[in-house]
Design goal:
Layout (H helix, E strand, L loop, with lengths): L3 H10 L3 H6 L9 H11 L6 E2 L1 H7 L10 H11 L7 E2 H21 L9 H10 L6 H11 L9 H21 L11 H9 L4
Antiparallel strand pairs: 1-2
Helix pairs in contact: 1-6, 3-6, 5-6, 5-9
The protein binds calcium ion (2 copies).
One calcium ion binds next to strand 1.
Keywords: Calcium, Cytoplasm, Metal-binding, Repeat
Main location: cytoplasm
Subcellular location: Cytoplasm
Length: 199
């Protein structure tokens, strides 16, 4: 049976192969007392809600560099049901599970335990998620999401890359009704598609 948090994630971002993969890591949502302890330590100003700065400070990408603010923004947007740019305790369990699942996913693709994802590891990850991308596109992805110019992708940037890829693919598929990989759209449709993306 799916946990409540998993169902919540499905509702928020829809079913995809990424989420199917993340579901390999299903584990029970920790008890409320444990979560409340974490929530209080993250909620530094004791406002009862977690804002982007608080979440960014609480998350680690395995280096001393600050956690990717874009990824923080994406995650707050996913779990912030009231659209206030903050997360209350009622949504914190789902967010906590989402981060933990991504951590496990990241570790499973970081074959050499280097703490980052190189191009080969990214190829394996995206193939597992069901994407068929050319070598050129893989190079472009690494270049775009490698924030520090090392030719590799950190944990936080990996989440951003996967979420962006998923969102763009979903937007494309809305028009690609026969699923042949081609779409013909008017300039107006293109703009409204791009402008409505939450990335
Ligand atoms: Ca707060
Ligand atoms: Ca690696």
């Amino acid at each position: 049976m799916r946990s409540l948090a998993t169902i919540q994630i499905y509702r928020v971002v829809g079913t995809t192969q990424i989420l199917n993969y993340l579901n390999n890591f299903i584990m029970a949502v920790p008890n409320q007392e444990f979560l409340w302890g974490i929530f209080q330590s993250v909620d530094r100003d004791r406002s009862g809600r977690i804002n982007t700065e608080e979440l960014q400070q609480a998350l680690s990408n395995g280096t001393w560099k600050p956690f990717n603010p874009e990824t923080v923004r994406l995650m707050i947007g996913m779990f912030d049901r009231e659209n206030q740019g903050q997360i209350g305790f009622e949504d914190f369990g789902a967010l906590w599970k989402y981060v933990t699942d991504w951590q496990n996913c990241f570790r499973s693709f970081d074959r050499d335990n280097s703490g980052n994802i190189d191009k080969g590891e990214l190829r394996t990850a995206l193939t597992t998620f069901g994407y068929k991308l050319s070598e050129n596109l893989l190079d472009t992805l690494v270049k775009k999401f490698d924030r520090f110019g090392n030719g590799t992708i950190l944990f936080d940037d990996f989440i951003q890359a996967c979420v962006v890829l998923h969102t763009l693919t979903a937007a494309f598929r809305q028009y690609d009704t026969d699923q042949d990989g081609y779409i013909t759209i008017h300039y107006d449709q293109f703009l409204s598609m791009v402008l409505s993306l939450k990335i």
